[in-house]
Amino acid sequence: MEGLFTFAPAIVLFPLVAFAITLLVGRYLPLGGAIPGIVATGGSLALSLVMAAAVAGGETTNELVYTWFETPEITFHFGLLIDPLSAAMLVVVSLIAFLVHVFSLSYMNAEGETGLPRYYAGLGLFTFSMLAFVVADNLLMSFVFFELVGLCSFLLIGFWYRTKSAPSAAKKAFLVTRFGDFFFLIGVVAIAASYGTLSFAGDASFVTAAESAIDSETFFGFDADTWVTITGLLVLGGVIGKSAQFPLHTWLPDAMEGPTPVSALIHAATMVAAGVYLVARMFGYYALSPTALAVIAFVGGFTALFAATMGCVKDDVKQVLAYSTISQYGYMMLAMGVGGYVAGVFHLLNHAVFKALLFLGAGAVIIAMHHEQDMWKMGGLKEQMPVTYYSFLAGSLALAGIIPFSGFWSKDEVLYDALIVGLSEPLILAAYAMALLAVFFTGFYTIRMVRLTFHGEPRSEAAESPHAIGLPAKIPLAVLGVLALVGGAMNLKPLEELAGLEVAFLERWLDGQGVGSVDGLTYHAYSETVHYGHEYIGGPEGTVILSAALSLGLALAGAGLAWTLYSGPEPTRHTERLGSLRDLAVANYYQDEYQVWLARGLTLPLARASDRFDQTAIDGVVDGVGSVSRFGGERLRRLQTGQVTDYAALVILGVLALLVVLGINGGWFL
Amino acid sequence: MSTAWIAISAMALIGVGLPIGMITLSSLLRPSVPEDGKRQTYESGEIPTGGTRFRFNVQYYMVALLFVIFDVETAFIFPWVVTYRDALEGGPSVVAVLAPMLAFLGILIVGLVWAWRNGAVSWARSETTDWRSTQNQ
Amino acid sequence: MIEPVQLPDAAALGPALVLGLTALVVFVFDSARPHEPDRGLLAGTTAAGSLLALGVGVWYMIAGVGVPEPDGAGVISLFDGQLVVDQLALFFMLVTAIVTALVAIASYDYMDGHAHQGEYYSLVLLAATGMATMAAANSLVTVFLALELASLPSYALVAILKDNRGSVEAGLKYFLLGALSSAIFVYGISLVYGATGVLQLDLVAEAITGETGQHVLTGNAHDVAGHDGLLGVGIVLLLVGIAFKTASVPLHFWAPEAYEGAPAPIAAFLSSASKAAGFVIAIRVFTTAFPVEATAGLVGFDWSVAFAVLAVATMTIGNFAAAVQENVKRMLAYSSVGHAGYALIGLAGVGAGANELVLGAALMHLFVYAFMNTGAFLFVALAEYWGVGRTFADYNGLGRRAPIACVALTVFMFSLAGIPPLGGFLSKYLLFWGSLQAGMLFVAGALVVNSALSLYYYSRLVKAVWFEEPVTDHGSLAQPVGLYAALIAAAVMTVVVLPGFGPIADSALDAATAVLTS
pTM of the full predicted structure? Predict the structure, then answer.
């Protein structure tokens, strides 16, 4: 490791040190042990910016740090891969972790919570694991830290472990994501077994190995391209669980039982992003398999619409945000699935910022409302909390995709990429259509949330006299609010297409143009591998205008509808007019019910049956072995008489027997 | 090879067979006259005073052990002394020739001091000495 | 830093010398105040000496002693090749030093109130010196001398609780059987010497491959093939002597008796360090002096097959006998017999392919075993210190009364059984994999079946400790500092072996490769 990258491990290790300090001596520290975490994440942020600057200066690193275990066939190791993608992600993760730590001073400390060292230790461990996941240079390391972030999520959702709902939600989150990770693990093993390497980049990467294997080799009786699809889909199991995609999305709304800063950091901005990030990290591999890409795109498009409809009928502000998170990750998956690597990453980064902002804003509202989360009991907070209101509004407009806020640019690019592929691929077109329709719902539920929360007359005592929020809450909101407004400037692709300005900065960044890049991990390289053709309506420019007009129009329509429906001092509950449709959406389309049925009605009887088999057939054999061994043991015991003369005699007899057998065998006596 | 083993087997057979044969033969030939006097330990009339299995004083062994230690020491020193002058003329420094023997003696001396301090050379049992090596008997 | 090559050659024996000198220091301390010994000083000196020996060993290892010339300092050969210090020797010196340190620390509490403190620690150190010398011995004479230097103190140590009938009885039995096996071993040496005319291991190997030995008295060359019977009997007798030292079937009878009667730290010492030392001479003598094919050509049997048979018999009998024990210490004694069987696979694999891997795995297993087995016996020492009793039932509910120690016990038990996240799993897995690579399917199968069986009785103890109701008392138990420190150190090491697996496995494999190619 050379130059500035010598310091790269420190980015990861700072939060680990903070975790250790907080865990061990946190209860003797002021502010419940918040300071080590703030200092560490601040340090990580500064170093991440240095890394980004180094990458901008044309350098990258892909280095081995520690060899865990070496065999002739495969080496398991831990290493650092810092390229444009991971550098950008490092900055975002450490920035949000830092802001969330600061915000927690208001949300947790000022509210007199107990068990704060446990909270900050959890945040520290999470930040460490997430950063290590981001810089992982191989799939095994990714898996290890993927599991660790899952563990931290479990610990933090269950922070208020005395309540009934939090531990149950924590368990649900853990089990559901574990179900996906199970496939991920099999995928890791399958990839390791078939290519003998788990590295992401370089000549010895599994992507290169898979590329050269296609058309020439077979694995376990499958053609190489089928095998790439199978293993890719297995890994995708983990992605779907972690990024809360249909059908493993059910844990995320329940995860809102955790403290709101945790929701902002883990269940909106970073951990949930780990799934999509993993797809981006090994995009070269998915690019080899059109089937896997189509699955990703379709799951993404469907999830985007499916979650958005549920978001429209929720009354709890955090629930609305949770479903919007699921929906937005659907967009990112769609982008990845149509080969829009840049669009997906762009939306990932933007979403991390504005969704963290929205959650922190919601957190501020929740403090103000004395921990009331029902939007129907709020209202009229606009005048009382101006900082929160304007930053929340910025986040909301970004989420709804209103020009010129950041979300517009990235969502538009996702939809544009989906459209140009969809014009020749019907399945993708369907995914595109669902995602486009979801834009309308997104606009609707976002503005409904803003309207109900901040506008109109106060509808409860708490809303009339809100609790003041402190400076540690306002600063992160302001920072993120500004970023949500200007974040789109990272990649003004439509302007580049239409006006010919060179303003698609992120695309150049991820393509390694003018900055450092790792061979084979560039947008360019991915685009060559992906098998999609592009078609346009009225040429590229026409398509850009058409796509942007459609998405902006639908977003404005949804937003406008909500704006008018929920206007006035006392808005009415319009969604109730939807009747049974609303009931269906409120009940989350009975997703939980069927999954519980799967567990109780199907898995449990199966488990019982196999238990019975185990008890009778397997245990019978085991007991048989046991009784034989007991019998044999008793026999042996009889040899062990305790008389030293017997032992000596046995020794001599044993030696003589050996000599006779071997002697006759070896012909010594002849 | 085979002839040698045949000879060995023959030796073994004779070695085992001869005493067994002689005992058998004599038991067949001798007259049997059971009598009480024959059952005594000493047919000369001497009457035994007790069993053969009693404890000797542990010091009895201590003397033997210490003797062996110094005996071995002497056995090592003699050849060393004989070759000492020749070895020095052969080239190596005084240290290289002297040091091993000093180390050897040093180890023995440490052992002797330890044994002495622990009462191995307190020849007689005395009421005033705390005599650890026998106190547990 | 001074490089070890700049030191005089004799310094290569550093770890052994440090242990021996510490024994003398303990003698001096004990001579100063023979009647009221300062227990802390004696135990502390012993622990410090063994840690110093450990440090010296680690230093040599890092400095590359034993690694072939261009990269390292090369194998150091002393006294015309009577002793060699190579990677194998250093590896086992480390194991010995670690176990000695753990035992010394734990003994501080265990031996509280017993007589013969000075004798105890100096005998431990002398035995450790012998074991460390065994690791470096390269001639049949030095092997035997070192073996005796390790054995004689061990006999006395087993019997050191002079007022305890069990201890004395066990010591006497151990001594008698040990003397018998030493006689057999030395007889084997004399026969091999008679057949080849040489004692140094590599010269024996030359005589066997060249089929030319020399007459013991006249020095005339003669044909070794003419003495095949002599050589064959000699090899078998050597094998028997080694089987005794490593407590392998059919010479394992002494082990349960000796371990049960001995003070628990001594049982830990014997079953870990002494057994490892037995294995090092087994490896050294058989791989260096008796090249498999040449020897098989001469004497008509392949000793690696003999080791394979011994391995399967030892692990099976050890585990089966352990499964029916009611006394915890005895269970551990038999389990230690079973583990000797696992380690024997290393020698069984020498004849087959992939020999470095199997032998390296065996070394690895002995290393991990040093921690987990010592730890398990130290828990027994702790239980004896508390005076809770000896059977499984007596251990019921200890988890609530002494949770930390019981967590350590759980770690040891699961590691001994070979449960994944712990050190014991990795070494067992390597053994399994290595024996598959070497084509020893039957041995690999026996390994798996035995491991499964062993889980039964190990988990039985864990169950007793955590899930059973205590019989009488519910109060919490004393926490003696020394025993706890040793116990926790052993537990931590058992766990830490996992992340540190790479370097340890590397040095084990290097040592195995070096001894096989030399």
Answer: 0.61
